[in-house]
Amino acid sequence: MMVLVNGIETDTLSVHDRGLHYGDGLFETISFINGQSLLWERHLNRLQRGCDLLTLPIPEITSLSEEASRVVVGAAQCVVKIILTRGIGGRGYRLPEDISTTRIVASYPWPSYPENYSTEGIITKICKTRIHANPQMAGLKHLNRLDNVMACQELDRPDITEGIMLDYHDHVIEGTMTNIYAVKDGKIRTPDLSQCGVAGVMRELIFEIADKLNIGYSVDGMSVDDLEQADEVFLSNSIIGIWPVRQIDEIRYAPGPVTLRLSEEVQRLTR
Question: What global pTM score does this model have?
Fold first, then answer.
């Protein structure tokens, strides 16, 4: 593992950093294989959108690219995390007059998930912890992730791999670390994320693949009943690709043709 803070190899950060005090920042988690990420541009586009919304100066893209290349040297497959904070400045919530973005680029070992997660699927549960609505920041990967942290504490059996999170109106939103999709009669349905949740870059790629394969999809409100009545359910993020869901609480599913076809295409494009 290598960590760069503002281009310098170190694992220390000022205790006055606003990312620590207020969660004032953004992050991206990116898969790298043989020194490259096929989803790099998608991650950087979302990072740019987040910086624009938070009025956070984004570092030069060439600097981020060079630093990502440095931290992955010698790794055939690894995960790179980019964290941007508003740096040091001011006490209290009001933004400092002079903002100097802190950038952290770090590499981590590739997670060792069982191979059968991608073929046989995983067991999940509906979490009691709800996601708070915040339309202004919906879709972004900001540093305020306590809803997800609390929800993960509910995964109280070793065979439960992921938790599914709802908002306070009982709408299904996402997994603790994934986007969620239901398949009914050959068509994909995925939750509307205009109020909360993270709009994953893999979700964006799946939409494009569905168009290419002439698989219909819709983005709208989703309930637990919709999941229970689905023919197939699957999850995605940029590290795992696609995982079929074989169980949500007591409801069981089998990996279906739509899920497996999409998964094969995602693996072909990204691996």
Answer: 0.95
User: DSSP letters along the chain, please?
Assistant: --EEETTEE-S---TTBHHHHH--EEEEEEEEETTB-TTHHHHHHHHHHHHHHHT-PPPPHHHHHHHHHHHTTT-SEEEEEEEEE--B--SSSSPPSS---EEEEEEEEPP---THHHHT-EEEEEEEEEEPP-GGGTB--BS--HHHHHHHTT--STTEEEEEEEETTS-EEEESSSEEEEEETTEEEEE--SSSSB--HHHHHHHHHHHHTT--EEEE---HHHHHT-SEEEEEETTTEEEEEEEETTEE----HHHHHHHHHHHHHH-
Tens-digit pLDDT profile for residues 64-88: 999 999 999 999 999 999 999 999 9
Domains by residue range for the chain, with CATH: 3-109 (3.30.470.10), 116-270 (3.20.10.10)
